[in-house]
Amino acid sequence: MTAVIPRAAVSVVVRWSEPFANSVQSRSNARYLLVQRGKEPNKGMWSLPGGKIELGEKTLDAAKRELMEETGLTTSVSTIIKQDRCILRWHTDGPFACSDSIHHSQTSGVSFHYVISQCFAEVTSSSPPNIIASDDAMDARWWSVDEMKDAENEGTVIEGVGSVVERSEKLYTSGLLECEG
């Protein structure tokens, strides 16, 4: 049996809300980007965009790469989408949280173990940009926190995603996840 060792991975909480909304409106109108996994582990489940960190790759660089590969969103200064300026800004002080994703197999014990660093980015535009899933994402779309919680309870969103998003929302609305871009 091959030994399974923990792998470093990254996920990205990408937030969009209506521009110029006050903090209460911003919180209630906020949408978060989730992708539907196209490969194991968690094939078919919805989760935050992300994946493995390559050897020698910085965490934030891995987050930007994975987001671009799975959704097409890039860190370019701005993109014009239907006459709307869309800007992707990143929290550059490093990950805001860390979690484990451990998967067990009936025959061999632990089959996957990822230590996931959660990074944060926000999209500034008048409406959420259209996302086209690619790479190992089967689909991608914007979710409200309530939609995400309901889907997590139904078993279609990976357990723990909602709590990561809620943590990011609290930090963001408290001014602790400032973004640059």
Automatic annotation (TrEMBL):
Keywords: Hydrolase. GO terms for molecular function: hydrolase activity. Pfam families: NUDIX. The keyword Hydrolase applies. InterPro entries: Nudix_hydrolase, NUDIX_hydrolase-like_dom_sf, NUDIX_hydrolase_CS, NUDIX_hydrolase_dom. Residues 5-165 form the Nudix hydrolase domain. The keyword Transmembrane helix does not apply. PANTHER family: ADP-RIBOSE PYROPHOSPHATASE (PTHR43736), DIHYDRONEOPTERIN TRIPHOSPHATE DIPHOSPHATASE (PTHR43736:SF1). Belongs to the Nudix hydrolase family. This is Nudix hydrolase domain-containing protein.
